């Protein structure tokens, strides 16, 4: 009998250690730990292949939105049978929420293989 990975820990770590990490070396280390060797990330306007490209996109996002911008999980991630979901919000620290969405991940051997970044429509 196989055991399920800790989906909440995995997706929260992804949010904090990849998408909130401003240090490229620390982000690369996190990607090596959290993602399979050749992951794919699906964004609303792009498909990104590989850890290095995911790191580049995360770094660009943080640069574009400024030093106080951060992603914050909403609730806990849920998942089973290799599929997980974590809702989040993002914006400046102590500021208004700029965007909300969710990460949906396909997990293989305890690591993220494919990640879909879903954005909620603006309210």
UniProtKB/TrEMBL annotation:
Task: Report the protein name in the record.
Answer: Nuclear transport factor 2 family protein
A Pfam family that this protein carries is SnoaL_2
**Membrane spanning residue stretches:** none
Q: Where is the SnoaL-like domain?
A: 17-114
Q: Which organism is it from?
A: Rhodopseudomonas telluris
């Amino acid at each position: 009998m196989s055991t399920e990975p800790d989906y909440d820990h995995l997706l929260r770590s992804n949010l904090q250690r990849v998408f909130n990490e401003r240090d490229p070396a620390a982000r690369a280390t996190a990607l090596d730990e959290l993602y399979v060797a050749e992951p794919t990330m699906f964004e609303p306007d792009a498909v990104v292949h590989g850890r290095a490209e995911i790191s580049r996109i995360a770094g660009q996002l943080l640069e574009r939105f400024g030093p106080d911008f951060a992603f914050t999980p909403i609730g806990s991630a849920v998942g089973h049978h290799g599929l997980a979901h974590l809702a989040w919000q993002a914006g400046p620290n102590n500021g208004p929420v700029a965007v909300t969405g969710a990460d949906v991940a396909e997990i293989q051997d305890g690591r993220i293989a494919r990640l879909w970044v879903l954005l909620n429509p603006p309210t």
